[in-house]
Amino acid sequence: MAVYAIGDVHGCLPELKALLKAVRFHPGRDRLWFVGDIFNRGPDSLGTIRFVRDLGERAVTLLGNHEVRALGGLSGRPDRGFARQMAFFNDAPDLPELYAWLRTLPLIHHDPELGASMVHAGFYPGWSREQAQARADDLQRIFRDDARIGSFFATFPTTFPESEPNQDDESARLHFALAVLTRLRICHPDGRVVWSIPGESGGTAFRLAADSPYRPWYRLLDWPEDDTTRIIYGHWAVAGLTQYGRFSGLDSGCVYGGRLTAMRLDHPDHPITQVACPGYVSPE
Ligand SMILES: [Mn+2]
What is the pTM of this model? Predict the structure, then answer.
């Protein structure tokens, strides 16, 4: 059995199929880990969601910020981005099934046997592994609960604090946690989150200069009990394929004309596999 982690697909179904062919993915034997953001921006979002969903137990798929935006929109709080970018959902006769599937997806996947963990964007440096997992579990319970998902997104803010809100504001804590797990890229050296840099456009930006006062989140994470666990993340297309110690950033900008990346997890020395993409959209 081979296990492959795959970077942000963003609706690039032809490239995903080419990548699976390149690694000789065997559906009866192998497993896939998707780092999130499987749809939006690329040429076949609905096809990609259905393809990945139909892999069933052969794939683990995380919620990325695009899946989260879809959950907000489909649960009754379409923001501008949802209305502008995700009209394809209106054309889906199987929308109820797709929405139901999206609501089951986790925010963190950890496999102790394989010695690997995956998150879409990153972990807040102030959390232990257990604290990160507890918040992800709380969020997943909300998304699966018909009575709670609507109000969670109805009160979802557009800006977030630099540090985790204190314990008596449960809703603010979970909003912050969701933003961190699906959007984090950089922090102040003391671990406070930097959500935007003045003068930079945000979104896909954050190409950190060598003399930047900020740090990528993974350079601040100190989980000594897990120093052998590899951590797989996506979301940072501008940084491209990144290897920093035990951290692997797999968003290599497929939909922007970069590549789609597969990393074999059960054989750490196995070379990375990539397929090129023609570039369906320009970075924002
Ligand atoms: Mn993302």
Answer: 0.95
